[in-house]
UniProtKB/TrEMBL annotation:
Residue span, N-acetyltransferase domain: 5-164
UniProt xrefs under InterPro entries: Acyl_CoA_acyltransferase, Bact_Acetyltransf, GNAT_dom
Protein name: GNAT family N-acetyltransferase
Keywords, comma-separated and alphabetical: Acyltransferase, Transferase
UniProt cross-references to PROSITE patterns, sorted A to Z: GNAT (PS51186)
Length: 178
């Protein structure tokens, strides 16, 4: 992990960086897994509006990984209920893949979740996205057997549900399965 890594909450001033990282990571990560029509995301201006709304609604739940002065990646999550956090967006610029930044960013987010008393983190991962699946498994996530089909630009995609238990607030042990 680079020594100069810092993790901080995103602000509205970071929206352009978030949109750019999402675009570049999306196209690299899903190349060969999704058709070209799906790889072409909404226009940057439309995505910028979505991120502005998210940051206004949940200002501390979008975290940025920053290396020196460059934004290297981001993670967006929110509490689904009093016990469960939902990890919704997690992207690193491809230049920073396989360098430990994702682990550090996820670790910070899970610490924030724990500090709010959340006991479980959940996410949906694109089926057959082997690098993402390996990453999450290495981070202690596991599959629970749920699958969902979604339409993306008219293309049917399958996602698999994963979860990880978080340590109970105030101790390092895992909480019981919720």
């Amino acid at each position: 992990m680079p020594v100069s890594l810092s993790v901080r909450p995103a602000t509205l001033a970071d929206v352009d960086d978030i949109v750019q990282i999402q675009q570049e990571s999306w196209q690299q990560a899903y190349q060969g897994l999704l058709p070209e029509v799906v790889l072409t995301l909404r226009p940057a201006q439309e995505r910028a509006l979505i991120w502005q709304q998210r940051l206004k609604a949940h200002p501390c739940m979008t975290l940025l990984a920053q290396v020196q002065d460059a934004v290297a990646g981001f993670l967006y999550w929110f509490p689904e209920n009093k016990r469960v956090a939902q990890l919704k967006s997690f992207y690193l610029h491809p230049f920073y893949w396989q360098q430990g930044l994702g682990s550090a960013l996820l670790g910070q987010a899970m610490g924030d979740m724990q500090s709010l008393g959340l006991r479980r983190c959940e996410l949906w991962v694109l089926a057959n996205n082997r690098p993402a699946e390996r990453f999450y498994l290495k981070q202690g996530f596991q599959y629970d057997g749920q699958r969902q089909r979604r339409q993306m630009e008219g293309v049917d995609v399958v996602q698999r549900h994963m979860y990880r238990l978080l340590a109970a607030k105030g101790n390092g042990s895992l909480s019981p399965l919720l």
